[in-house]
């Protein structure tokens, strides 16, 4: 089975969030199921710099006003097709935002080009390869099935995965004439969305199957609270919607071999985590007082519940805990955490930005990871936490609810608990979860069982890849 994956970011080439991790890990996970996946992505400068001996396999003389090439290259086992269009993607900022943190004004054109290129590849643009099915990710690739409806790939199945429905790719109606779509595409059956052009809307309307990254999130987005305006459309397409929980790359995230941590360990050698704890404490300038170290690796935003976490920092310290924060985002939230670090030297530390090696050390050295998200389609940091014996404390929502077994009395007695859940997302509720965590931490044998049980969890792609392969097969069987 030949599948074209279309994504705006792919780890390890470029990453701003979990989409990149999924796009980077899924191809290898699908190989044992007879699926060959080639991934089309934009040729950002950081991507082009990492490619070794790419070969031009196709191109366009005029892709939205500019020439562009399709380059084929293998990168660390990833079979990549890179859209090399310098006028669209050779920018000094990130993949979506300029140096000032503002959206590029031509994002509609940049990602329409990615989608159109994907549709043309599906239709036979490349002389030596044509997919059987297309799998697109998020709004940046969601116009692909729309273009396919009006091109030579009409009838080829398309799977659209929603990683976060809050990001929709909505633009004013003035951009529609620039999208190279026929006039009838600006209708409720395609991209028209309350008078605007909706990239994700078009994909949701035309894809043969819609998946989200957890079963709970698939149910949540059918409600007005979580559907972000698409609950009605998704309810109408309910028979096409399913949730498949994400996995993680268990080779990259493996405490027994991880080169980024101070000491490697496994479920039977948890005492070696103490070496990582010391390294983490040194990095964040913590004192040597006993007590649990909590960590946060997150965008500092309202969605992630960071305002609620900021409210309980003093409680963590007063109860003998420490807090290590790695992240950036909302300026007011960054300030709140930096102020807390100044208020509690030796107990609260913060590193602004993102640091991949440090994120590994935090999972290996902290006792628990805090994830108080208001909504979380899947979440990956709690999966890393399970893998590393860093006990997740999570809000009961989306993929967090699907992947963490709450340490209530029954689950602890049955020795199946893997973390702590709380609801609603409020300071009072989070404080209660923290009290439960502190109480459990004071029982070393119980805490160690909680860690070990989490480390036994299957957080790989094996089961989910099987489900994707079955979905592909069912769509192709429908003809």
UniProtKB/TrEMBL annotation:
Residues given in the record as ADP-alpha-D-glucose binding sites: 15
An example Gene Ontology biological process: glycogen biosynthetic process
The protein, known as: Glycogen synthase
Domain Glycosyl transferase family: 291-440
Reactions it catalyzes: [(1->4)-alpha-D-glucosyl](n) + ADP-alpha-D-glucose = [(1->4)-alpha-D-glucosyl](n+1) + ADP + H(+)
Function: Synthesizes alpha-1,4-glucan chains using ADP-glucose.
Gene3D superfamilies registered for this protein in UniProt: Glycogen Phosphorylase B
The EC number(s) this enzyme carries: 2.4.1.21
Gene Ontology MF: a single term: alpha-1,4-glucan glucosyltransferase (ADP-glucose donor) activity
Similarity-based family: Belongs to the glycosyltransferase 1 family. Bacterial/plant glycogen synthase subfamily.
Swiss-Prot/TrEMBL keywords: Glycogen biosynthesis, Glycosyltransferase, Transferase
Residues in Starch synthase catalytic domain copies: 3-235
Pathway where this protein functions: Glycan biosynthesis; glycogen biosynthesis
CDD domains from the UniProt entry: GT5_Glycogen_synthase_DULL1-like (cd03791)
PANTHER family in the record: ALPHA AMYLASE DOMAIN-CONTAINING PROTEIN, GRANULE-BOUND STARCH SYNTHASE 1, CHLOROPLASTIC/AMYLOPLASTIC
GO cellular component: cytosol
Iron in keyword set: no
InterPro entries: Glyco_trans_1 (IPR001296), GS/SS (IPR011835), Starch_synth_cat_dom (IPR013534)
